[in-house]
Design goal:
single chain; about 350 residues; alpha/beta; TIM Barrel; 6-stranded parallel β-sheet; globular
């Protein structure tokens, strides 16, 4: 009798603790700051402190996408992997944001030859051999945003660039995802007025890129793409209707939420009070295995989030998860990311 009662009390205690502890999360998109300087060890310490505050059990670390090499700021898998080995199980690394993006940007699409393809493949496969779990942060169009500071670059390459097509093939061969930044332009359009203060570097006229992006997604259906920053759109072009169209058309497309409180605009997933909008909840219900979290936080030494997701932005990820029904919450918080990136992440803990 006493043993049965003891087992019951242990079980009751375990259930109570599990209910009290916030659901663990995986952040699939974060960076270590490199402006004005890099302190990767300091950034790691800051990241771990912020992760622990919010029960982010694991984060995917990557370089922001570069279009040119700057020695004092550049980072890729060679720099990032040694830094995170001191925190086993807390980080995984994506590669190519500090190398493959530069190679793509340096070669006009119509001049890609066999030599360039071979060099690109060698670098991509080297990244995976060094332990990266995927490629990122890659870019198609990357707008310069005032909120990201004066050094935030404008970057643009054709979505159907031959080297991006080759990267899709390499990713499919190795069954690893590609994290993609693409500020979508459905058709040619002027730069929105709120971004004109950053023109240049942003062009005053934006060229449509949706059709070319869809060509990239269709090129190799076995290549998985994680389209970053859904729910927080500088161009306000990726609203629920567009997201639904893209997910229906491309089974190999996934999306990661970056969340600010955005008021009434449809592309913003949260309202001004941090509540998930009904149309976004419906989307998650329709595609429960296609969404994950991706803060876009830039962690710097000195216990601060330097830019990208603010502390509120990180809290918004927790707020999103806490508003979802339990089965959807676990998928968005961790299970989808763990499956797609093949992460050793204990489900249910």
């Amino acid at each position: 009798m006493r043993n049965r009662m003891l087992r019951f009390l242990v079980l009751l205690f375990s259930v109570t603790v599990a209910q009290a502890e916030p659901l663990p999360m995986i952040d699939t998109h974060m960076h270590f700051e490199s402006v004005p300087y890099m302190d990767l060890d300091g950034s790691r310490k800051t990241a771990l402190a912020e992760m622990d505050r919010r029960n982010i059990r694991m984060s995917l670390l990557m370089s922001p996408p570069r279009d040119s090499f700057v020695a004092k700021r550049n980072q890729d898998v060679e720099e990032l992997m040694p830094t995170v080995k001191d925190a086993p199980g807390r980080f995984a690394v994506l590669g190519g944001g500090g190398s493959l993006t530069i190679m793509i940007n340096a070669v006009p699409a119509d001049t890609v030859n066999d030599e360039r393809r071979s060099e690109f493949r060698q670098r991509a496969e080297r990244i995976l051999a060094l332990g990266a779990v995927g490629f990122g942060e890659m870019f198609i169009q990357h707008l310069s945003l005032p909120a990201m500071g004066p050094g935030h670059a404008y970057e643009n390459v054709p979505a159907d660039h031959p080297l991006l097509m080759l990267l899709a093939d390499i990713a499919a061969e190795h069954d690893v995802p590609i994290d993609m930044h693409s500020d979508m332009v459905p058709q040619d359009m002027p730069l929105p007025p709120n971004l004109m203060s950053h023109s240049p570097p942003n062009p005053a006229q934006l060229t449509g890129n949706r059709a070319a992006f869809e060509a990239l997604l269709s090129h190799n259906p076995k290549a998985k793409f994680v389209w970053a920053h859904v729910g927080f759109e500088p161009l306000l072009t990726r609203g629920p209707a567009v997201v639904r169209e893209m997910l229906q058309a491309h089974p190999n497309l996934y999306m990661s939420f970056r969340l600010n409180r955005g008021g009434p605009m449809h592309p913003m997933a949260l309202d001004e009070d941090g509540r998930l909008k009904d149309e976004w909840l419906l989307l998650i219900r329709e595609f429960p295995d296609r969404f994950m979290l991706g803060s876009d936080a830039f962690y710097a030494a000195g216990e601060r989030v330097a830019r990208g997701a603010s502390s509120q932005g990180l809290d918004n990820l927790r707020g999103l998860v806490d508003q979802l029904p339990p089965d959807l919450a676990r998928r968005v918080a961790s299970d989808n990311a763990a499956l797609i990136y093949k992460l050793k992440f204990p489900s249910g803990n």
